[in-house]
Write a structure and sequence with these properties.
three-stranded antiparallel beta sheet, alpha+beta, 4 helices
C-alpha cells in the first residue's frame, strides 16, 4: 500500500513538471487545455481503477464497504480526469474567457464580471468567480498558470 502511494505521488510530481506554463497562442486568443502528459495520465487511470475494482472484489467480508468506497472514488476520479483532459477547452483574450465542455456548453465570461478567484488544493484546481458562477481550471492544464496571472491582472485593473 505504501509503495502504491509513493508511486502515485511520483506520477503526479512528474505530471506537474511536464505541464507547459504558457498557453497556446491563437492570434490574440490563448488556449488552455490538457497537454499530452495529462491526457496520458487520464487514460492510465482507467486500468488503475479496473485494478482497484478487481482488488475490491477480493476483499474480506468485513472490508467490502470500505473497498467499495475506494473503488467508487477511483472511478469518479478517473471520469473527472478523462472529462477534463479530453472534453474541456478554455480560451481567453483581452475581453474575456470562454469555457467549453459537453456538460456546460459554450459560455463566455467578460473580465468586467470577474469577482475573484482562488485555489482548491484538494481538487488541484484554480477557480475564477464571474458574478456567481465558478469556472474551474485544473492546474494540470497547459497554460493554467498564465491564465490565472492574466485574470489577476484583469481583476486588479477592474477594482
Amino acid at each position: 500500500m505504501l509503495l502504491s502511494g509513493l508511486l502515485g505521488a511520483l506520477a503526479v510530481y512528474l505530471l506537474r513538471r511536464l505541464v507547459r506554463a504558457e498557453p497556446v497562442d491563437e492570434k490574440a486568443r490563448w488556449r488552455v487545455r490538457a497537454g499530452p502528459a495529462m491526457r496520458l495520465f487520464a487514460l492510465f487511470t482507467l486500468p488503475l481503477a479496473g485494478f482497484v475494482t478487481y482488488a475490491a472484489l477480493h476483499a474480506a467480508t468485513d472490508q467490502r464497504l470500505w473497498a467499495a468506497g475506494v473503488t467508487a472514488f477511483f472511478w469518479v476520479a478517473a471520469g473527472i480526469l478523462i472529462y477534463t483532459a479530453f472534453f474541456v477547452s478554455i480560451t481567453y483574450d483581452e475581453a474575456g474567457l470562454t469555457y467549453q465542455s459537453p456538460l456546460a456548453g459554450k459560455r463566455r465570461f467578460s473580465w468586467a464580471r470577474l469577482r475573484g478567484g482562488g485555489y482548491s488544493a484538494f481538487l488541484g484546481s484554480y477557480f475564477l468567480i464571474f458574478d456567481r458562477k465558478k469556472v474551474w481550471i485544473s492546474e494540470l492544464m497547459d497554460g493554467s498558470e498564465a491564465l490565472i496571472a492574466f485574470a489577476g491582472e484583469k481583476f486588479e485593473a477592474g477594482r
